[in-house]
Amino acid sequence: MKRIVILGGGESGAGSAILAQAKGFDVFLSDSGVLQDKYKQELSGKNILFEEKGHTESLILSADEIIKSPGIPEEAPLIVAAKSKNIPIISEIEFAGRYTDAKKICITGSNGKTTTTSLIYHILKSAGLNVGLGGNIGQSFARQVAANNYDYYVLELSSFQLDNMYDFKADIAILLNITPDHLDRYDHDMQKYIDAKMRIVRNQTLADAFIYWGEDPIVTKEVVKLQPKATLYSFTEFKKEGVAGYSDNHKLYIRTPKSVFEMEQDLLALTGTHNLYNSLAAGITAKLLDITDEKLRLSLSDFKGVEHRLEKVASVKGIQFVNDSKATNVNSCWYALKSMKSKVVLILGGKDKGNDYTEIEELVMSKVHALVFLGVDNSKLHKFFDGKVTEIEDAGSMEEAVNKAYKLANDGDAVLLSPCCASFDLFKSYEDRGDQFKFWVRKL
């Protein structure tokens, strides 16, 4: 019997274990940390063997195949040891993809992927399709393949999930943009990160679609270089020759081989230029899947948005508090600042991933009158921003950050949490960071 070992016991690992057992494999799960109670109960209930708080090397290196959690880096000692023994190492996405014939719509990009993934899912579900949502969002893909029989999957894929993907193929692949992110995981080599993102087109054929932002300098260069075999559909802000999605004269247009769709831009639920791109990518996808104009129009206008992404929390004494905790890189923060109509008090900081803050320097200087640095180590932020913004404060907790930002803000300002950084220095996750922000704002 083939032995499958799963490294990492979060949602991705637990889902992989359940699917591997359902397919009749000998399964063992190992995590160096502590498993959440819900996963322990689930694994025990299904008699799946697991260990936590450490790895037993002999049990792991006896695997025929290893499914690696996206969070584990390639240079982890166990991964290096497994590679030296030629044990195949794959991702949960690669594994689950073997066991479903459903159409797979896969979304990646440095920014906007959660919003676009959620929007596409909303459109397909509202149109009555039998569709699952997974990958980097919601329940794991593997868990759903084990338990459900969907006709479509909408999957948000991070570069880490794409890294260990080999035979998996997206029927529709969407690449929103590529800007520096996670460079700490890619030896501070931008090309390695780009190569990981471009794996989204792997194994595609002419019958498949590749949808991408036609004005992204990196993506367009890679498209010329790689010559993807898929049928290409690009989107741009304004009308250009051969573009499938664009805006013109306050309207959004989507041109696919079978139809031309148009809609007043004012009716879109999502506002801002970056959300226009997200709506265009989702719209092209919908028309390729033959969603009617009427249903698409309705879904694009009634979508509720994503938690922790430019989420309006409350207005306190004329000050608008905005939770953009999902902005874990500099480019996300750039989009957030770009969409702000008022003066801003910006809360920045966390675990730096090799950030370059020059991208937001101009916007900070023109829109931000006070900064609050929220992190264990704010030295890099001070080095860059000191002297550029008159008021700068440090905070060691979210309560302190919210109170300081509130005191610094004037009537009509926005207090924006858009940290540019990962959350792991002070918080469990970006969700935890955003939830704490909302909690303390509501206490004001």
Automatic annotation (TrEMBL):
Residues the record lists as binding ATP: 109-115
Annotated EC: 6.3.2.9
Matching Gene3D superfamilies: Mur ligase, C-terminal domain (3.90.190.20), Mur-like, catalytic domain (3.40.1190.10), NAD(P)-binding Rossmann-like Domain (3.40.50.720)
Domain of life assignment: Bacteria
Compartments it resides in: Cytoplasm
Enzyme class: ligase
Pathway of action: Cell wall biogenesis; peptidoglycan biosynthesis
Protein name per its UniProtKB record: UDP-N-acetylmuramoylalanine--D-glutamate ligase
Classification lineage: Bacteria, Pseudomonadati, Bacteroidota, Bacteroidia, Bacteroidales
